[in-house]
Structure to design on (496 residues):
Protein backbone atom coordinates (compact mmCIF):
# COMPACT_ATOMS: atom_id res chain seq x y z
CA UNK A 1 0.00 0.00 0.00
CA UNK A 2 1.44 3.40 -0.96
CA UNK A 3 2.56 5.90 1.64
CA UNK A 4 -0.02 8.26 0.19
CA UNK A 5 -2.94 6.00 1.08
CA UNK A 6 -1.37 4.95 4.37
CA UNK A 7 -1.46 8.59 5.41
CA UNK A 8 -5.03 8.85 4.14
CA UNK A 9 -6.17 5.94 6.28
CA UNK A 10 -5.63 7.79 9.58
CA UNK A 11 -8.53 8.29 11.98
CA UNK A 12 -10.74 11.36 11.57
CA UNK A 13 -9.01 13.36 14.26
CA UNK A 14 -5.62 12.72 12.70
CA UNK A 15 -6.92 13.29 9.19
CA UNK A 16 -7.59 16.94 9.94
CA UNK A 17 -3.93 17.39 10.82
CA UNK A 18 -2.11 15.24 8.28
CA UNK A 19 -0.20 16.83 5.38
CA UNK A 20 -3.04 16.19 2.93
CA UNK A 21 -5.61 18.04 4.98
CA UNK A 22 -5.91 21.67 6.02
CA UNK A 23 -4.12 22.53 9.22
CA UNK A 24 -6.39 22.62 12.29
CA UNK A 25 -8.20 25.92 12.66
CA UNK A 26 -7.65 28.22 15.61
CA UNK A 27 -11.00 29.95 15.69
CA UNK A 28 -11.38 31.51 12.24
CA UNK A 29 -8.10 33.41 12.18
CA UNK A 30 -5.63 30.75 11.01
CA UNK A 31 -3.05 31.84 8.45
CA UNK A 32 -2.40 29.19 5.82
CA UNK A 33 1.11 27.79 5.65
CA UNK A 34 1.02 27.48 1.87
CA UNK A 35 2.58 30.33 -0.14
CA UNK A 36 0.23 32.02 -2.61
CA UNK A 37 2.57 31.21 -5.52
CA UNK A 38 2.66 27.47 -4.76
CA UNK A 39 1.24 24.74 -6.97
CA UNK A 40 1.00 24.26 -10.73
CA UNK A 41 -0.14 27.84 -11.20
CA UNK A 42 3.08 28.94 -9.49
CA UNK A 43 5.11 26.91 -12.01
CA UNK A 44 3.43 28.81 -14.85
CA UNK A 45 3.54 32.23 -13.18
CA UNK A 46 7.27 31.84 -12.59
CA UNK A 47 7.76 31.97 -16.38
CA UNK A 48 6.29 35.21 -17.78
CA UNK A 49 7.19 34.04 -21.29
CA UNK A 50 4.31 31.56 -21.12
CA UNK A 51 1.84 34.35 -21.85
CA UNK A 52 -0.93 32.28 -23.44
CA UNK A 53 -0.81 29.63 -20.73
CA UNK A 54 -0.76 32.30 -18.04
CA UNK A 55 -3.90 33.79 -19.58
CA UNK A 56 -5.73 30.43 -19.59
CA UNK A 57 -4.80 29.30 -16.07
CA UNK A 58 -5.75 31.56 -13.18
CA UNK A 59 -6.32 31.24 -9.42
CA UNK A 60 -10.09 31.45 -9.86
CA UNK A 61 -10.15 28.34 -12.05
CA UNK A 62 -8.16 26.34 -9.49
CA UNK A 63 -10.41 27.60 -6.69
CA UNK A 64 -13.52 26.58 -8.63
CA UNK A 65 -12.12 23.08 -9.06
CA UNK A 66 -11.43 22.82 -5.32
CA UNK A 67 -14.95 23.96 -4.38
CA UNK A 68 -16.36 21.57 -6.99
CA UNK A 69 -14.55 18.62 -5.40
CA UNK A 70 -15.66 19.65 -1.90
CA UNK A 71 -19.28 20.02 -2.97
CA UNK A 72 -19.23 16.67 -4.77
CA UNK A 73 -17.99 14.87 -1.66
CA UNK A 74 -20.53 16.66 0.54
CA UNK A 75 -23.37 15.63 -1.79
CA UNK A 76 -21.86 12.16 -2.41
CA UNK A 77 -22.26 12.77 -6.12
CA UNK A 78 -19.62 12.05 -8.76
CA UNK A 79 -19.32 15.09 -11.05
CA UNK A 80 -20.21 14.81 -14.74
CA UNK A 81 -16.81 15.89 -16.01
CA UNK A 82 -13.62 14.51 -17.48
CA UNK A 83 -13.71 10.78 -18.12
CA UNK A 84 -17.35 10.46 -17.03
CA UNK A 85 -18.55 12.68 -19.88
CA UNK A 86 -16.20 10.92 -22.30
CA UNK A 87 -17.71 7.54 -21.38
CA UNK A 88 -21.25 8.89 -21.75
CA UNK A 89 -20.40 10.32 -25.14
CA UNK A 90 -19.06 6.94 -26.19
CA UNK A 91 -22.13 4.79 -25.51
CA UNK A 92 -25.09 7.20 -25.82
CA UNK A 93 -25.33 6.92 -29.66
CA UNK A 94 -26.00 3.19 -29.24
CA UNK A 95 -28.63 3.91 -26.56
CA UNK A 96 -30.30 6.45 -28.86
CA UNK A 97 -30.41 3.91 -31.69
CA UNK A 98 -31.83 1.18 -29.43
CA UNK A 99 -34.53 3.49 -28.04
CA UNK A 100 -35.59 4.60 -31.51
CA UNK A 101 -35.58 1.02 -32.83
CA UNK A 102 -37.93 0.10 -29.98
CA UNK A 103 -40.19 3.06 -30.77
CA UNK A 104 -39.30 4.80 -27.50
CA UNK A 105 -38.83 8.23 -29.04
CA UNK A 106 -39.43 10.03 -25.74
CA UNK A 107 -36.38 8.40 -24.14
CA UNK A 108 -34.25 9.03 -27.22
CA UNK A 109 -35.31 12.69 -27.21
CA UNK A 110 -34.61 13.12 -23.49
CA UNK A 111 -31.16 11.54 -23.71
CA UNK A 112 -30.21 13.73 -26.68
CA UNK A 113 -31.36 16.81 -24.75
CA UNK A 114 -29.24 15.68 -21.80
CA UNK A 115 -26.16 15.29 -24.00
CA UNK A 116 -26.79 18.71 -25.55
CA UNK A 117 -26.60 20.22 -22.05
CA UNK A 118 -23.46 18.17 -21.38
CA UNK A 119 -21.95 19.69 -24.55
CA UNK A 120 -22.84 23.16 -23.25
CA UNK A 121 -21.12 22.44 -19.91
CA UNK A 122 -18.00 21.37 -21.79
CA UNK A 123 -17.99 24.54 -23.91
CA UNK A 124 -18.91 22.66 -27.11
CA UNK A 125 -21.55 25.22 -28.03
CA UNK A 126 -21.72 24.43 -31.75
CA UNK A 127 -22.41 20.77 -30.97
CA UNK A 128 -24.97 21.73 -28.32
CA UNK A 129 -26.91 24.10 -30.58
CA UNK A 130 -26.68 21.69 -33.51
CA UNK A 131 -28.29 18.92 -31.44
CA UNK A 132 -31.01 21.27 -30.18
CA UNK A 133 -31.81 22.36 -33.74
CA UNK A 134 -32.12 18.69 -34.80
CA UNK A 135 -34.47 18.01 -31.88
CA UNK A 136 -36.66 20.96 -32.85
CA UNK A 137 -36.73 19.76 -36.45
CA UNK A 138 -37.70 16.23 -35.39
CA UNK A 139 -40.46 17.43 -33.05
CA UNK A 140 -41.46 21.07 -33.68
CA UNK A 141 -44.22 20.91 -31.07
CA UNK A 142 -41.81 20.23 -28.19
CA UNK A 143 -40.87 23.63 -26.69
CA UNK A 144 -38.04 22.48 -24.43
CA UNK A 145 -35.16 22.33 -26.97
CA UNK A 146 -36.16 25.83 -28.14
CA UNK A 147 -36.06 27.15 -24.57
CA UNK A 148 -32.63 25.58 -23.94
CA UNK A 149 -31.24 26.99 -27.18
CA UNK A 150 -32.54 30.47 -26.32
CA UNK A 151 -30.74 30.39 -22.94
CA UNK A 152 -27.46 29.29 -24.51
CA UNK A 153 -27.70 32.02 -27.16
CA UNK A 154 -28.41 34.53 -24.37
CA UNK A 155 -25.10 33.77 -22.66
CA UNK A 156 -23.28 33.74 -25.99
CA UNK A 157 -24.52 37.36 -26.24
CA UNK A 158 -26.50 36.54 -29.39
CA UNK A 159 -29.70 38.16 -28.17
CA UNK A 160 -31.47 38.24 -31.57
CA UNK A 161 -31.02 34.48 -31.97
CA UNK A 162 -32.29 33.95 -28.43
CA UNK A 163 -35.42 36.01 -29.10
CA UNK A 164 -36.01 34.17 -32.38
CA UNK A 165 -35.98 30.78 -30.65
CA UNK A 166 -38.25 31.99 -27.85
CA UNK A 167 -40.71 33.42 -30.40
CA UNK A 168 -41.38 29.84 -31.55
CA UNK A 169 -42.45 28.67 -28.07
CA UNK A 170 -46.27 28.39 -27.87
CA UNK A 171 -47.52 30.68 -25.10
CA UNK A 172 -50.31 28.23 -24.31
CA UNK A 173 -47.71 25.56 -23.42
CA UNK A 174 -45.11 27.76 -21.69
CA UNK A 175 -46.42 31.26 -20.82
CA UNK A 176 -43.07 32.49 -19.38
CA UNK A 177 -40.25 30.49 -21.02
CA UNK A 178 -37.50 32.50 -19.30
CA UNK A 179 -38.87 31.28 -15.96
CA UNK A 180 -38.92 27.65 -17.03
CA UNK A 181 -36.53 25.11 -15.47
CA UNK A 182 -35.15 24.26 -18.93
CA UNK A 183 -34.07 27.86 -19.41
CA UNK A 184 -32.43 27.91 -15.98
CA UNK A 185 -30.71 24.57 -16.56
CA UNK A 186 -29.29 25.75 -19.88
CA UNK A 187 -28.06 29.01 -18.30
CA UNK A 188 -26.17 27.01 -15.66
CA UNK A 189 -24.73 24.63 -18.28
CA UNK A 190 -23.55 27.45 -20.55
CA UNK A 191 -21.98 29.25 -17.57
CA UNK A 192 -19.90 26.18 -16.77
CA UNK A 193 -18.91 25.99 -20.44
CA UNK A 194 -17.44 29.48 -20.30
CA UNK A 195 -20.07 31.43 -22.24
CA UNK A 196 -18.95 35.09 -22.14
CA UNK A 197 -22.27 36.55 -21.02
CA UNK A 198 -22.13 34.59 -17.76
CA UNK A 199 -19.34 36.79 -16.38
CA UNK A 200 -20.51 40.00 -18.06
CA UNK A 201 -24.01 41.21 -18.90
CA UNK A 202 -26.13 38.24 -17.77
CA UNK A 203 -24.80 37.64 -14.24
CA UNK A 204 -28.18 38.42 -12.71
CA UNK A 205 -29.88 35.78 -14.87
CA UNK A 206 -27.28 33.19 -13.90
CA UNK A 207 -27.63 34.07 -10.21
CA UNK A 208 -31.42 33.68 -10.32
CA UNK A 209 -31.17 30.33 -12.11
CA UNK A 210 -28.51 28.96 -9.77
CA UNK A 211 -30.30 30.07 -6.61
CA UNK A 212 -33.51 28.43 -7.83
CA UNK A 213 -31.88 24.99 -7.91
CA UNK A 214 -29.96 25.47 -4.67
CA UNK A 215 -32.91 26.78 -2.66
CA UNK A 216 -35.37 24.23 -4.07
CA UNK A 217 -33.10 21.40 -3.00
CA UNK A 218 -32.45 23.00 0.39
CA UNK A 219 -36.08 23.93 1.14
CA UNK A 220 -38.00 21.21 -0.71
CA UNK A 221 -39.74 20.42 2.56
CA UNK A 222 -39.08 23.13 5.10
CA UNK A 223 -39.10 21.19 8.35
CA UNK A 224 -37.84 17.84 7.08
CA UNK A 225 -34.38 16.64 6.15
CA UNK A 226 -30.97 16.49 7.81
CA UNK A 227 -30.44 20.28 7.87
CA UNK A 228 -32.15 22.23 10.65
CA UNK A 229 -34.52 25.09 9.83
CA UNK A 230 -32.11 27.50 11.52
CA UNK A 231 -29.28 26.44 9.20
CA UNK A 232 -31.57 26.68 6.17
CA UNK A 233 -32.51 30.25 7.12
CA UNK A 234 -28.87 31.17 7.77
CA UNK A 235 -27.60 29.70 4.50
CA UNK A 236 -30.37 31.32 2.44
CA UNK A 237 -29.91 34.73 4.08
CA UNK A 238 -26.13 34.64 3.62
CA UNK A 239 -26.49 33.62 -0.02
CA UNK A 240 -29.02 36.38 -0.68
CA UNK A 241 -26.83 39.04 0.92
CA UNK A 242 -23.66 37.85 -0.81
CA UNK A 243 -25.33 37.82 -4.22
CA UNK A 244 -27.09 41.16 -3.75
CA UNK A 245 -23.89 42.99 -2.75
CA UNK A 246 -22.08 41.72 -5.84
CA UNK A 247 -24.69 42.47 -8.48
CA UNK A 248 -25.95 45.72 -9.89
CA UNK A 249 -28.95 43.87 -11.36
CA UNK A 250 -32.23 44.07 -9.51
CA UNK A 251 -32.95 40.34 -9.30
CA UNK A 252 -35.61 38.50 -7.36
CA UNK A 253 -34.01 36.69 -4.43
CA UNK A 254 -35.59 33.80 -2.48
CA UNK A 255 -37.72 35.13 0.38
CA UNK A 256 -36.76 33.48 3.67
CA UNK A 257 -40.05 34.51 5.25
CA UNK A 258 -42.05 33.02 2.39
CA UNK A 259 -40.05 29.80 2.62
CA UNK A 260 -40.85 29.61 6.32
CA UNK A 261 -44.53 30.43 5.77
CA UNK A 262 -44.78 27.50 3.36
CA UNK A 263 -44.16 25.31 6.40
CA UNK A 264 -44.07 21.58 5.89
CA UNK A 265 -46.00 21.68 2.62
CA UNK A 266 -43.59 20.68 -0.18
CA UNK A 267 -43.52 23.02 -3.14
CA UNK A 268 -43.65 22.00 -6.77
CA UNK A 269 -41.84 20.11 -8.06
CA UNK A 270 -41.43 18.15 -4.81
CA UNK A 271 -39.56 15.41 -6.67
CA UNK A 272 -36.59 17.76 -7.06
CA UNK A 273 -36.07 17.78 -3.30
CA UNK A 274 -36.23 14.03 -2.79
CA UNK A 275 -35.29 12.28 -6.03
CA UNK A 276 -31.80 10.79 -6.34
CA UNK A 277 -29.68 12.46 -9.00
CA UNK A 278 -30.89 16.00 -8.38
CA UNK A 279 -27.62 16.61 -6.52
CA UNK A 280 -26.06 17.10 -9.96
CA UNK A 281 -28.18 20.22 -10.52
CA UNK A 282 -27.25 21.65 -7.12
CA UNK A 283 -23.55 20.97 -7.70
CA UNK A 284 -23.62 22.60 -11.14
CA UNK A 285 -25.68 25.54 -9.86
CA UNK A 286 -23.23 26.17 -7.02
CA UNK A 287 -20.31 26.22 -9.45
CA UNK A 288 -22.17 28.54 -11.82
CA UNK A 289 -22.99 30.94 -8.96
CA UNK A 290 -19.34 31.06 -7.84
CA UNK A 291 -18.07 31.46 -11.39
CA UNK A 292 -20.50 34.14 -12.56
CA UNK A 293 -21.24 36.20 -9.45
CA UNK A 294 -18.34 35.83 -7.03
CA UNK A 295 -15.21 35.12 -9.10
CA UNK A 296 -16.28 36.42 -12.54
CA UNK A 297 -14.08 33.86 -14.29
CA UNK A 298 -15.07 30.75 -16.26
CA UNK A 299 -14.23 27.36 -14.74
CA UNK A 300 -11.64 24.96 -16.13
CA UNK A 301 -14.09 22.62 -17.86
CA UNK A 302 -13.99 20.55 -21.02
CA UNK A 303 -12.75 22.56 -23.97
CA UNK A 304 -10.89 25.06 -21.78
CA UNK A 305 -8.86 22.19 -20.29
CA UNK A 306 -8.06 20.91 -23.78
CA UNK A 307 -7.12 24.36 -25.03
CA UNK A 308 -4.74 24.74 -22.08
CA UNK A 309 -3.25 21.33 -22.93
CA UNK A 310 -2.65 22.37 -26.55
CA UNK A 311 -0.94 25.59 -25.45
CA UNK A 312 1.19 23.81 -22.83
CA UNK A 313 2.17 21.17 -25.40
CA UNK A 314 3.34 23.91 -27.76
CA UNK A 315 5.30 25.58 -24.96
CA UNK A 316 6.88 22.24 -24.02
CA UNK A 317 8.08 21.74 -27.59
CA UNK A 318 9.68 25.17 -27.51
CA UNK A 319 11.37 24.48 -24.15
CA UNK A 320 12.79 21.18 -25.45
CA UNK A 321 14.09 22.86 -28.62
CA UNK A 322 15.77 25.55 -26.50
CA UNK A 323 17.19 22.89 -24.12
CA UNK A 324 15.47 24.58 -21.16
CA UNK A 325 15.25 21.43 -19.02
CA UNK A 326 13.78 23.21 -15.97
CA UNK A 327 10.93 24.70 -18.00
CA UNK A 328 10.32 21.36 -19.74
CA UNK A 329 10.07 19.56 -16.38
CA UNK A 330 7.57 22.07 -15.02
CA UNK A 331 5.48 22.02 -18.18
CA UNK A 332 5.28 18.22 -18.07
CA UNK A 333 3.87 18.49 -14.54
CA UNK A 334 1.28 21.02 -15.75
CA UNK A 335 0.37 18.80 -18.71
CA UNK A 336 -0.01 15.80 -16.40
CA UNK A 337 -2.36 17.77 -14.15
CA UNK A 338 -4.50 18.89 -17.11
CA UNK A 339 -4.63 15.34 -18.51
CA UNK A 340 -5.76 14.03 -15.10
CA UNK A 341 -8.41 16.76 -14.92
CA UNK A 342 -9.72 15.59 -18.30
CA UNK A 343 -9.80 11.96 -17.15
CA UNK A 344 -6.80 10.92 -19.29
CA UNK A 345 -4.98 9.11 -16.50
CA UNK A 346 -2.62 7.08 -18.70
CA UNK A 347 -1.55 10.24 -20.53
CA UNK A 348 -0.93 11.94 -17.18
CA UNK A 349 1.18 8.99 -16.01
CA UNK A 350 3.17 9.08 -19.26
CA UNK A 351 3.97 12.74 -18.62
CA UNK A 352 5.24 11.98 -15.14
CA UNK A 353 7.36 9.10 -16.46
CA UNK A 354 8.87 11.39 -19.11
CA UNK A 355 9.78 13.97 -16.48
CA UNK A 356 11.29 11.33 -14.17
CA UNK A 357 13.30 9.85 -17.03
CA UNK A 358 14.72 13.21 -18.13
CA UNK A 359 15.75 14.22 -14.60
CA UNK A 360 16.08 11.30 -12.14
CA UNK A 361 17.06 13.73 -9.38
CA UNK A 362 13.64 15.43 -9.52
CA UNK A 363 11.45 13.64 -6.96
CA UNK A 364 8.24 15.50 -7.91
CA UNK A 365 7.12 13.40 -10.91
CA UNK A 366 7.68 10.08 -9.11
CA UNK A 367 5.73 11.21 -6.06
CA UNK A 368 2.87 12.67 -8.10
CA UNK A 369 2.74 9.54 -10.29
CA UNK A 370 2.40 7.46 -7.13
CA UNK A 371 -0.50 9.65 -5.97
CA UNK A 372 -2.16 9.31 -9.39
CA UNK A 373 -1.80 5.53 -9.42
CA UNK A 374 -3.09 5.21 -5.87
CA UNK A 375 -6.28 7.03 -6.84
CA UNK A 376 -6.67 5.42 -10.26
CA UNK A 377 -6.56 1.87 -8.81
CA UNK A 378 -3.18 1.01 -10.34
CA UNK A 379 -1.86 -0.79 -7.28
CA UNK A 380 1.13 -2.54 -8.86
CA UNK A 381 2.40 0.65 -10.48
CA UNK A 382 1.79 2.60 -7.27
CA UNK A 383 3.76 0.06 -5.20
CA UNK A 384 6.61 0.09 -7.74
CA UNK A 385 6.84 3.88 -7.64
CA UNK A 386 6.62 3.83 -3.85
CA UNK A 387 9.59 1.45 -3.65
CA UNK A 388 11.65 3.60 -6.04
CA UNK A 389 10.76 6.76 -4.15
CA UNK A 390 11.82 5.27 -0.81
CA UNK A 391 15.05 3.82 -2.25
CA UNK A 392 16.05 7.20 -3.64
CA UNK A 393 14.95 8.99 -0.44
CA UNK A 394 12.77 11.27 -2.52
CA UNK A 395 10.91 14.23 -1.10
CA UNK A 396 7.30 14.02 -0.03
CA UNK A 397 4.85 16.35 1.75
CA UNK A 398 5.63 14.33 4.90
CA UNK A 399 9.00 16.10 4.91
CA UNK A 400 7.40 19.54 5.16
CA UNK A 401 7.81 20.33 1.45
CA UNK A 402 4.98 22.85 1.07
CA UNK A 403 5.57 23.31 -2.67
CA UNK A 404 5.13 19.57 -3.27
CA UNK A 405 2.17 19.60 -0.89
CA UNK A 406 0.42 22.17 -3.08
CA UNK A 407 1.15 20.16 -6.24
CA UNK A 408 -0.20 17.04 -4.53
CA UNK A 409 -3.40 18.71 -3.37
CA UNK A 410 -4.12 20.13 -6.83
CA UNK A 411 -3.53 16.72 -8.40
CA UNK A 412 -5.91 15.06 -5.92
CA UNK A 413 -8.61 17.59 -6.85
CA UNK A 414 -7.96 17.09 -10.58
CA UNK A 415 -8.10 13.28 -10.38
CA UNK A 416 -11.31 13.35 -8.33
CA UNK A 417 -12.96 15.56 -10.98
CA UNK A 418 -11.43 13.55 -13.83
CA UNK A 419 -13.60 10.50 -13.29
CA UNK A 420 -12.43 8.52 -10.24
CA UNK A 421 -15.61 7.43 -8.39
CA UNK A 422 -14.22 6.41 -4.98
CA UNK A 423 -14.20 9.77 -3.14
CA UNK A 424 -17.97 10.08 -3.60
CA UNK A 425 -18.97 6.70 -2.16
CA UNK A 426 -19.89 6.24 1.48
CA UNK A 427 -17.66 3.21 1.94
CA UNK A 428 -14.44 4.76 0.60
CA UNK A 429 -13.51 6.85 3.57
CA UNK A 430 -9.76 7.00 2.87
CA UNK A 431 -10.24 8.52 -0.60
CA UNK A 432 -12.98 10.79 0.74
CA UNK A 433 -10.74 12.14 3.49
CA UNK A 434 -7.88 12.81 1.09
CA UNK A 435 -10.10 14.77 -1.31
CA UNK A 436 -11.76 16.76 1.48
CA UNK A 437 -8.37 17.57 2.98
CA UNK A 438 -6.76 18.56 -0.32
CA UNK A 439 -9.68 20.58 -1.69
CA UNK A 440 -10.38 22.20 1.68
CA UNK A 441 -6.75 23.25 1.98
CA UNK A 442 -6.83 24.94 -1.44
CA UNK A 443 -10.08 26.75 -0.64
CA UNK A 444 -8.73 27.84 2.73
CA UNK A 445 -5.53 29.14 1.15
CA UNK A 446 -7.65 31.28 -1.20
CA UNK A 447 -9.73 32.64 1.69
CA UNK A 448 -6.59 33.49 3.67
CA UNK A 449 -5.13 35.24 0.62
CA UNK A 450 -8.32 37.30 0.31
CA UNK A 451 -8.15 38.26 4.00
CA UNK A 452 -4.74 39.83 3.38
CA UNK A 453 -6.40 42.54 1.25
CA UNK A 454 -6.05 45.67 3.40
CA UNK A 455 -8.75 47.49 1.41
CA UNK A 456 -11.41 44.99 2.49
CA UNK A 457 -14.20 46.35 4.70
CA UNK A 458 -14.87 45.02 8.19
CA UNK A 459 -18.14 43.46 7.03
CA UNK A 460 -16.38 41.67 4.16
CA UNK A 461 -13.73 40.38 6.56
CA UNK A 462 -16.38 39.03 8.89
CA UNK A 463 -18.12 37.34 5.95
CA UNK A 464 -14.87 35.65 4.90
CA UNK A 465 -14.10 34.52 8.43
CA UNK A 466 -17.61 33.15 8.77
CA UNK A 467 -17.12 31.34 5.47
CA UNK A 468 -13.91 29.77 6.79
CA UNK A 469 -15.66 28.64 9.95
CA UNK A 470 -18.52 27.18 7.88
CA UNK A 471 -15.97 25.48 5.58
CA UNK A 472 -14.18 23.84 8.48
CA UNK A 473 -17.43 22.71 10.11
CA UNK A 474 -18.56 21.18 6.82
CA UNK A 475 -15.24 19.41 6.33
CA UNK A 476 -15.31 18.02 9.85
CA UNK A 477 -18.84 16.72 9.25
CA UNK A 478 -17.83 15.11 5.96
CA UNK A 479 -14.94 13.33 7.67
CA UNK A 480 -16.98 11.97 10.57
CA UNK A 481 -17.01 8.40 9.36
CA UNK A 482 -16.96 5.56 11.84
CA UNK A 483 -16.34 1.84 11.62
CA UNK A 484 -19.31 -0.37 12.35
CA UNK A 485 -19.82 -4.11 12.40
CA UNK A 486 -21.98 -5.79 9.82
CA UNK A 487 -24.32 -8.65 10.62
CA UNK A 488 -21.63 -11.12 9.69
CA UNK A 489 -19.17 -9.54 12.08
CA UNK A 490 -17.16 -7.92 9.30
CA UNK A 491 -16.26 -4.27 9.10
CA UNK A 492 -18.33 -1.70 7.31
CA UNK A 493 -18.41 2.08 7.25
CA UNK A 494 -21.15 4.49 8.09
CA UNK A 495 -21.54 8.20 8.60
CA UNK A 496 -22.51 9.55 11.96
Amino acid sequence: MSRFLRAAALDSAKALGNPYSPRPFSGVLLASSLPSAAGHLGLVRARPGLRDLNALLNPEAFLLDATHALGAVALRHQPFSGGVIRQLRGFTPQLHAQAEAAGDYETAHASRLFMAMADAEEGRFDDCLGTLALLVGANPGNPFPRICAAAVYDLLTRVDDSDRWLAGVPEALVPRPRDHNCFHHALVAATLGGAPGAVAGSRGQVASAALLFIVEKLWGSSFDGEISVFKKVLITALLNRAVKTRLDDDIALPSVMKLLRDGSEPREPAVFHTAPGTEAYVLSASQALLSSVFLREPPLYGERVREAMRVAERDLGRAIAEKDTAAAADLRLVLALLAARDGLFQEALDRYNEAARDDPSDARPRWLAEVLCAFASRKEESDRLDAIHERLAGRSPDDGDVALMALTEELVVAVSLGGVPYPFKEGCRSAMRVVVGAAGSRVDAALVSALRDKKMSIVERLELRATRAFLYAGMSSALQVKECKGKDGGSATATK
Q: What stands out?
A: The longest helix spans residues 429-451. The beta strands are 481-485, 491-495. Residues 5-36, 263-274, 481-496 have pLDDT under 50 and may be disordered. The chain has 24 helices and two strands.
